[in-house]
Amino acid sequence: MAQEKIVVDSTVPATAAEAWNAYTSPDRIKQWNFASDDWHCPAANVDLREGGQFISRMEAKDGSFGFNFVGTYTTLIENKRIEYEFGGRQATIDFTPHGNQTHVRVTFDPDNEFPIEQQRNGWQSILDNFAKHLAASATNA
User: Rounded to two decimals, what is the model's pTM?
Assistant: First the structure.
């Protein structure tokens, strides 16, 4: 029996084009792609095309643990939707503009290793960091 997909979302203080750029630019990804302050994303590579691969290195700041988050883009609709496959699972990111804000919704297949709530909370924390990054970028603009 297939598990239900997990959904996390946030409204970010940026246009859809700005949110897309922050979500797909390696330099920007390194600034927000981690679930807690004791983790970081020291490296990110993006081949932004259908069939292209991305890799984000996620590590505990103390060096005790780390992993590569790797996926392959399957659908790209600029400033609107990203779909990718990762480890036999699927994820979709939708960017829906609301004036000068954008609703970002991430839908993904859960893994069989960690509890659903833990997965939802982790991905929501990463998306919350994304929103904070965009808020800081807007403040510094």
Answer: 0.94
